[in-house]
Specification:
The structure holds 2 protein chains of 2 kinds.
Chain A: E1 3-11, H1 16-30, E2 34-41, E3 49-57, E4 69-74, H2 77-83, E5 87-95, E6 109-112, H3 115-121, H4 128-139, H5 145-155, H6 161-182
Parallel strand pairs in A: 1-4, 4-5, 5-6
Antiparallel strand pairs in A: 1-3, 2-3
Helix pairs in contact in A: 1-4, 1-5, 3-4, 4-5, 4-6, 5-6
Chain B: E1 5-8, H1 9-19, E2 22-27, H2 34-43, E3 50-53, H3 57-69, E4 73-78, H4 80-96, E5 100-108, E6 114-118, H5 123-128, E7 138-139, H6 144-161, E8 164-170, H7 171-175, E9 177-180, H8 241-256, H9 259-262, E10 265-268, E11 275-278, H10 281-296, E12 301-306, E13 308-310, H11 314-323, E14 326-331, H12 338-345, E15 351-355, H13 364-374
Parallel strand pairs in B: 2-3, 2-4, 4-5, 5-8, 7-8, 11-12, 11-14, 14-15
Antiparallel strand pairs in B: 1-9, 5-6, 7-13, 10-12
Classes of the chains: A alpha/beta, B alpha/beta.
Chain lengths: 183, 375
């Protein structure tokens, strides 16, 4: 792997930037890889389009922007519409079917992960981003589930690690089932 | 070394400033510099320092000057529109020779412009934002690590030269996260302080390098920082031609005569480079990648990246101009450093230009295309 580009996207308040930071820490701190994380969002702190890019490389990552995405996590229809076209032909799209109803026409590897519903089922709707991270661990083959779990625990504010890890594991399990169904 | 952490640019900048001894921060929130203020508010009290959120940018700069006069290493941070508001007091700090650090996390456009997007449009403001002939020192990081190291250097240079130092970051660098392990401690420089008896103190009598010793207010040494042209005793001498001439020449000379001490450049693949890209900060990240790709395609490209922007690195540019086939200046403005490179190159080699001013850093292939045109 020379360069792997991941984008987590959705609306402000869904925690996509935090999820991206955790992904970057899993790769950069727990696996010692080269990583650059950037983010962009609108002036509103809730409800505006936001995205978080994580570029992972074997060598230092100089250009922090995206050439072609290897992975897109879309937690809103807008994000899916806007960014799916940036995926490489064999890129992976992980989306929440609660929000993303229309998939891009171009054939790609698309996996529906019920992030919000699963998180709600655990009594923590706010942890949908952690469910999505679990799915990334299972499907993207990018960083190990163990590294991601450690990064989730390290970033969780006091008293929330357990809930976040439960959501993460639920995402991991759901996506593993999905993976075996696909293959 | 400390444990490696995933740090944001603004976060590393704060850690660098604190490591260098900054113990006072005054500011007013503004995107994309706000994290600096927030972190200072959190960290300074624990270090025995002081943080003040002032009523505006003018007040912030004034508070920084006051703190520095009282002996603290002091800093403020803002973005273009806020830096414009600080200029009057920055000019005061220059003539009264008050060390301080001014961070400008650049955004695009004149006025409030493009608040959340990166640019490099304040390069000349960092030099000529205040009126009148004066010295300017400005540094520009390109990574999270350099946010730390340039912050340390900015504080040290302000103390060494008794003048404001500008740190030019931008939204890209400020909000980017990379893994970095800050050092446990850093080398620090303190302003020269008087060691003579109090009654013999002449506040603006320079040493052999043109720098007067600076007494902390409250330490018993009496002096008066004046915005007017002043003599060695700090008293206004606004109609004294000889005093005015001496002061302006000393202010500029105390920095420019020692520019070598300040110059800080990174060179990539310059040994045999025919096409040399000159770029700094976020744009240099794309330029460096473009140079790598050009090399892989057999083009002899290189990168000259100034980490110190002012005083301009004339010797390094002159050296490159003497042997390169062409220099390509790539910057996030419409030609602010282009003119400087042309001035130094003085026709010794062609100087081409690449600009991007839409709030995005260039894609490496855009710079690569220009390199290929020149090769």
């Amino acid at each position: 792997m020379k360069r792997y580009e991941a984008r987590l996207s959705g609306l402000g308040g869904q925690g996509v930037i935090l999820a991206g930071i955790i992904l970057a820490e899993a790769a950069g701190i727990h696996e010692g890889r080269q990583v650059v994380q950037t983010q962009s969002y609108g002036p509103e702190s809730r409800g505006s389009a936001c995205k978080c890019d994580v570029i992972i490389g074997d060598e230092p990552v100089k250009y922090p922007g995206v050439y072609r995405l290897n992975l897109l996590v879309a937690l809103s229809q807008d994000a899916c519409d806007k960014y799916a076209r940036d995926l490489v032909p064999d890129g992976l799209l992980i989306y929440d079917p609660l929000y993303v109803k229309n998939l891009p026409e171009r054939p790609l590897r698309a996996c529906a992960v019920k992030a919000t519903e699963t998180a709600e089922g655990l009594g923590r709707k706010i942890a949908a981003n952690m469910v999505a991270l679990g799915a990334v661990a299972a499907l993207a083959g990018l960083v190990s589930a163990d590294s991601l779990a450690r990064a989730v625990a390290a970033r969780s504010p006091r008293g929330t690690a357990e809930g976040n890890l439960a959501a993460f594991r639920a995402g991991l399990a759901a996506a593993r089932e999905l993976r075996s169904a696909i293959s | 070394m400390t444990t490696p952490r995933l740090l944001q640019g603004n976060e590393a900048l704060v850690e660098g400033a604190l490591a260098a001894g900054v113990r006072f921060f005054a500011g007013y929130p503004i995107t994309p510099a706000t994290e600096i203020l927030e972190l200072m508010a959190r960290k300074l009290p624990r270090l025995g320092g002081k943080f003040i959120q002032m009523e505006d940018e003018l007040g912030s700069m004034g508070a920084v000057i006051g703190a520095s006069v009282a002996g603290a290493k002091a800093m403020t941070a803002s973005s273009g529109p806020g830096i414009s508001l600080k200029q009057e007091n920055i000019g005061f700090a220059i003539i009264a020779e008050i060390p301080c650090v001014v961070v400008n996390v650049m955004r695009g456009g004149p006025s409030t412009g493009m608040p959340t997007l990166p640019s490099q449009m304040d390069v000349m403001q960092a030099k000529w934002g205040a009126h009148g002939d004066h010295p300017a020192i400005a540094l520009a990081p390109w990574s999270v690590e350099e946010c730390f190291t340039t912050a340390v250097r900015a504080v040290n240079l302000a103390e060494r030269f008794r003048t404001p130092v500008t740190l030019l970051s931008d939204a890209e660098i400020a909000h980017m996260r990379e893994v970095y392990a800050p050092p446990e401690s850093v080398e620090t420089i303190d302003r020269p302080r008087p060691n003579c008896p109090r009654e013999e103190y002449v506040p603006y009598r320079p040493d052999e390098r043109g720098i007067p010793a600076m007494a902390d207010f409250g330490s018993g040494y009496r002096w008066h920082p004046d915005s007017n042209c002043h003599d060695e005793y700090g008293f206004p001498a606004t109609n004294n031609h000889a005093v005015g001439d001496k002061l302006v020449r000393r202010l500029v000379g105390k920095v420019n005569d020692y520019a070598e001490e300040i110059h800080w450049l990174s060179e990539e693949r310059l040994e045999d480079a025919e096409i040399v890209v000159f770029a700094f900060g976020s744009v240099a990240r794309s330029a460096s990648e473009a140079v790598d790709v050009a090399r892989s395609q057999g083009i002899k490209a290189g990168l000259l990246r100034p980490i110190s922007i002012w005083p301009f690195p004339d010797p390094a540019v002159a050296k490159v101009a003497a042997r390169a086939k062409a220099i390509l200046v790539a910057e996030g403005n419409l030609g602010q450093l282009l003119g400087e490179v042309q001035r130094v190159a003085a026709g010794r080699c062609p100087v081409a230009h690449f600009s991007r001013v839409d709030g995005l850093i260039p894609r490496p292939e855009q710079i690569l295309a220009r390199i290929k045109e020149l090769a």
